Amino acid sequence: MSARRAGVVGSLLMIVFLAVNLRPAIAAVGPLLTEISDEFGLSGTAAGALTTLPLVFFGSYGLAAAFLPRAPRGETLLVSAMALLVGGLVLRLLDAPVALFAGSLVAGIAISIGNIAMPAIIKRDHPSRITTVTAVYTVAVTAGASLSSGFAVPVEHAFDSSWRLPLGLLAIPAALAELLWVPRARRAAHAARSAPPAAAPGGVAALVWRSGLAWHVTVFMGMQSLLAYVVLGWLPTICQDRGMDEAPAGYVLALSAAMQALGSLAVPVLARRTRDQRPLVLTTVVVTVIGFVGVTWAPIGSVWGWAVVLGLGQGLGFATALSFIGLRAHDAHIATQLSGMAQGVGYLIAALGPLALGALHDATGGWSVPMIGVLAVCIVMGIPGLAAGRIRTVGAPAAASEGVNPAISGHIPK
Known about the structure:
Layout: H1 3-19, H2 24-27, H3 29-40, H4 44-58, H5 60-65, H6 74-91, H7 97-125, H8 130-158, H9 164-169, H10 171-194, H11 202-209, H12 212-241, H13 246-271, H14 278-297, H15 303-327, H16 332-364, H17 368-380, H18 382-388, H19 398-402, H20 406-409
Helix pairs in contact: 1-8, 3-4, 3-8, 3-12, 4-7, 4-12, 4-16, 6-7, 6-10, 7-15, 7-16, 8-13, 8-15, 11-16, 12-13, 12-15, 12-16, 12-18, 13-15, 14-15, 14-17, 14-18, 16-17
């Protein structure tokens, strides 16, 4: 293996190891939510807020990034994110509702920093493989969600413990990821000290926030994320309310999350066969609608198959939304700001999902009305998605943005 290829593989492995830590803090709560709610006496709305609170702050760093006088290096951000994540995971183990919610808030901020930094690093370090590397990153994120949601209840039962053990164990891989990225962050900091000062992000931020294309990317990101966190927060509870036991309901979520990984891997394959990403958006909408209908109203014995369909659709949507950040940005500086905007505003939109679903369930006493609202979101999501899927870039000259550039069209050479 050549030194260059070894460097690419090493970079991918580091991305993967960090990415698997970016969802377990949220995903592992779903299968344990009933137990946590019972211990602290949480209402449906408060239980929804427990999964919503981190989502509200998933976009916090993205919203703040535009106002920073100097953007920190991506590697520094990732190390800081993992350190905060460890702190948040430990904090919410304390025997107090305040600590539970405060730890979730800190974890949300930590994940926000990682969410924003990673797409810009992919754009900078892998400009000719954006969809492929983004798919690998997305698979790692969804794999972390799948494993944590699937093993939360079995780990609890195996050690005859409470919900605190499976949630507390998540701090170990986060701490390891932090240690893994420290040497690279030190090298990046040393290189930054010897390099010319970088331009302040204010001008780039203004360009991005005034772009209609950037807003299309942002709204699509937000709506597909809303649907994803409805699934993470409430799918096990829906299954339990339909008659499943706690552990199998967690496995349904794990299966759906695992299928998201396969859906994500399909994005670079399908992208090479289409001129732009609009067919991916349409496929995402149709498959996701079918999946939600199945898990909600089809016979409960068939929920496993519908969870597969739902996972594939959401995997397609997640990888497509993240790919839009690199594909629709003209350069790495714009990718950083677009990542901050799309995920900053997008996760504020996403945070409405679990909270609104819990409130609607409390108000109606069932799942039909809340899930009809979810289906409406699925359909409306196609509008900004189709606009974002056209071949254009934020910050590019008009002639360049209308051309078919392999690095931005999705036709990525291997």
